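Sequence in, structure out. Go.
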Amino acid sequence: MSITDNTADIRLAIIGLGYVGLPLAAEFGKRRKVVGFDINAARIAALRAGQDMTLEVSEEELSEAVGLSYSTELSDLVDCNFYIVTVPTPIDAHKRPDLSPLIRASRIIGKVLNKGDIVVYESTVYPGATEEDCVPELEAVSGLKFNVDFYVGYSPERVNPGDKAHRVATIKKVTAGSTPEVAELIDRLYREIIVAGTHKASSIRVAEAAKVIENTQRDLNIALINELAIIFNKLGLETEAVLEAAGTKWNFLPFRPGLVGGHCIGVDPYYLTYKAEAIGYHPQIILAGRRLNDGMGAYAVSQLVKAMVKRRIQVEGARVLVMGLTFKENCPDLRNTRVVDIVRELEEYNVVADVYDPWVSLEEARHEYGITPVVELQDGVYDAIIVAVAHDRFRAIGVNKIRALGKSTHVLYDLKYIFKPEEADVRL
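Output:
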């Protein structure tokens, strides 16, 4: 394929069918033939049966994607000439970028890459990763030369798991390519499905940087509010009341305190700080915000323990219910959930912590965190209850039924402000 060809000549493959890749593949699949590729055979089998375990794409939407096929076989990629990579970019135990899924995907594509092909990456990375880390893998495996035989692009994902209003087609898309001609072709392809429009960045590195600072900015804003909540708690002020009052000013940003997890906000800043340190600059504000947000689970437990002591509730050996395990409300996504920090901190006090979350897969919770959530709840058994995730289902249960789960003397901690101030014993 020549890079001057129109989008009708594109034979598309999406590599990675998770929270990012599947919605993208389904949208393209409504308009053209697409090979959806994933190394997880169970995932492919479920999708072929019309089931998306992430709940991001409905069975009806999958059936509408008539051009979308699913595969784990490399041979099904041979006839493709345009690849979009949507694999995870996590951090390791030392909070350093883990590019291994990205490298593996690049090597897979390298085995089928032909002259004129284009590879676009959507995974969140630090500026320079596409051309410095991924391109060498493509060259080494394929034997082809970058920007002579094949080309690359970058178009950062902007999905919001559980959000049914902001979907892949209704969120403006940033695009970039390794040459002006490739950038234009990539932009035209995405415009087929993105009704919100596109923004063509001046370079791949600019697009990479734009993505990584989106979530870094959110992380720092939440860190500020978390620190304010700690200060207000010490001053005996109701944090939500202060924020509501401040929010009457037109330009006050409506952030709220809480745990900061997930695949983006709690991860992406470390990609930027890693790159900054690699070029000799030690970031201060970004890392300070990360430290504060990473410590909120322990802080929340310290608040709970103090409240229990004030009510003369024996902490050691107490039974505490943690309501919610996902990283955010109304979705089954467990990636980098910081509710785990609360569970682990409670265990440090020799507290028996039960976790309840009707959204999560029990198998995934056991596999990822060694936690087996309870399926049924009993009244009158808990010394304390923490509402850690603002699932609508928890709101629907109501404060009275949730309190009924506790013993005659117990503490109710509303971490997510889902109840009125007077209905909870402790709030962040």
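Check: The first strand starts at residue 12 and ends at 15. DSSP finds 15 helices and 13 strands in the chain.
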